[in-house]
Structure formats: C-alpha cells, structure tokens
C-alpha cells in the first residue's frame, strides 16, 4: 500500500476479534513510529503497553478509577458490567505519555510531535491489518489515570491507542474538501 492509500484506508476501529496481538507487533510498530519529526530531537514520548498478561488488572483498576470519580454513580449493576465488558473487549491498550518541560512553545511542539508519532502508529498498524483507535478525554486525561499508569510528575497523557484485529471496519467518514479550507495568500 502506498502512503496515500494507507492514509485513506485507516479507520478508527473500535470492535475487535478475540485473536491476541503479539507484543512484538506493537513494539515493531513503535520502533518505526518514533521516526516522526521531533524538534531538537527531544523525543518527548513514552509508552505504557497493556496486553494479554496485564489487561484484566488494567480493566479492574480503570473501573475502580471510574467509581472513585463518580462516573459509575448513576449506572445500574448491569450497565457497570456492560461498561467493564466494553473495556475488556479491547485486546491492547497503549498509553502514550509525553514529557512536559521547557517553555510553553516547546510544550506545544512536543505535544504536536507526539501527535505526529501517534498518526505514524495508526498508519503502521493499518499496514499490518491491525485495527486501532485513538482515545482521549474524560478519565484518560485525569491525574488519577496518570498515576495509575505510572506517569511521573512531568509526564502527561497524550492519548490512549487501543488495538486489536478488526471485527468491524467502519466506512470512510467523508471530510470537507481541503480546497474549501484553502486560501492562496
Ligand atoms: C485526539 C483524538 C482523540 C480521539 N478520541 C476518541 C475517543 O475518545 N473515542 C473514540 O471513539 N474516538 C476518538 N477519536 C477518533 C475519532 O473519533 C475519529 O478519528 C473520527 O471519528 C474520524 O473517524 P476515522 O478515524 O475512522 O476517520 C479521537 C481522535 C483524535 C485525533
């Protein structure tokens, strides 16, 4: 697949089969993804991988975190169970952290570099036939989650990438044509 095809074929895949994803595969993806541009070679990223061996422990801790944050208060036992199952149905979670240091501009550059690296991860996963989805917001960006995952004081969560072999590949979501957002100076 050439780059253009790869970009157009990538989807946010959220449903996976039970087939395990080898750690080596994720590691191979990361070893290439880190060749994203990074100003002054600061390489601000770090990764925490959750796969088969640790997935149950991770989901347990995630549910405890949600409970502590009150995010389960309005939910019935059945709804909580469904939520837990939804987390448990994801074979691999990769938390991407980035180091927060330097000036505001540097911090922005480092987050941007990390985002570029994450897109590399997604394209490389697509090339291997793996499904993935970039997750963010809510519980993932909290201090409690950062602590749970073992982030140091100067690290922040850039995003969670979940992976698995696709059970369902969503159709292309059309974008607004770039020419509609392009002006010539
Ligand atoms: C920074 C960022 C955060 C995202 N967070 C979530 C998320 O929390 N949950 C989710 O289902 N998708 C999330 N997505 C994926 C988008 O929903 C998805 O890219 C969009 O719907 C377009 O679909 P596509 O990726 O298949 O083209 C996120 C994407 C980005 C770039």
UniProtKB/TrEMBL annotation:
Q: Which GO terms describe its molecular function?
A: oxidoreductase activity
Instruction: Determine if 4Fe-4S is one of this entry's keywords.
Output: no
Sequence positions that bind FMN: 10-12, 39, 134-136
| Superkingdom of the organism of origin | Bacteria
Q: Keyword set for this entry?
A: Flavoprotein, FMN, NAD, NADP, Oxidoreductase
Task: Show the CDD domains listed in the entry.
Answer: YdjA-like
Describe the location of the Nitroreductase domain by residue ranges. Answer: 7-165
The record's Gene3D superfamilies line, in alphabetical order, gives:
NADH Oxidase
Tell me the protein family, please. Belongs to the nitroreductase family.
* Record's protein name: Putative NAD(P)H nitroreductase
């Amino acid at each position: 697949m050439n780059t253009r095809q790869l970009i157009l074929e990538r989807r946010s895949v959220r449903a996976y089969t039970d087939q395990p994803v080898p750690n080596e595969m994720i590691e191979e993806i990361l070893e290439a993804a880190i060749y994203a541009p990074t100003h002054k070679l600061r390489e601000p990223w770090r990764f925490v991988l959750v796969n088969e061996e640790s997935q149950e422990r991770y989901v347990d801790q995630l549910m405890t975190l949600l409970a502590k944050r009150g995010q389960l208060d309005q939910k019935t036992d059945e709804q909580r169970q469904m939520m837990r199952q939804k987390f448990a149905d994801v074979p691999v979670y990769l938390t991407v952290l980035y180091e927060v240091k330097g000036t505001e501009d540097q911090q922005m550059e480092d987050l941007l570099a990390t985002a570029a690296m994450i897109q590399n991860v997604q394209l490389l996963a697509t090339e291997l036939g793996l499904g993935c989805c970039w997750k963010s917001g809510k519980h993932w960006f909290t201090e409690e989650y950062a602590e749970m995952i073992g982030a140091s004081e100067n690290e922040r969560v850039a995003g969670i990438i979940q992976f698995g072999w696709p059970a369902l590949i969503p159709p292309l979501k059309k974008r607004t044509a770039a020419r509609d957002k392009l002006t010539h100076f």
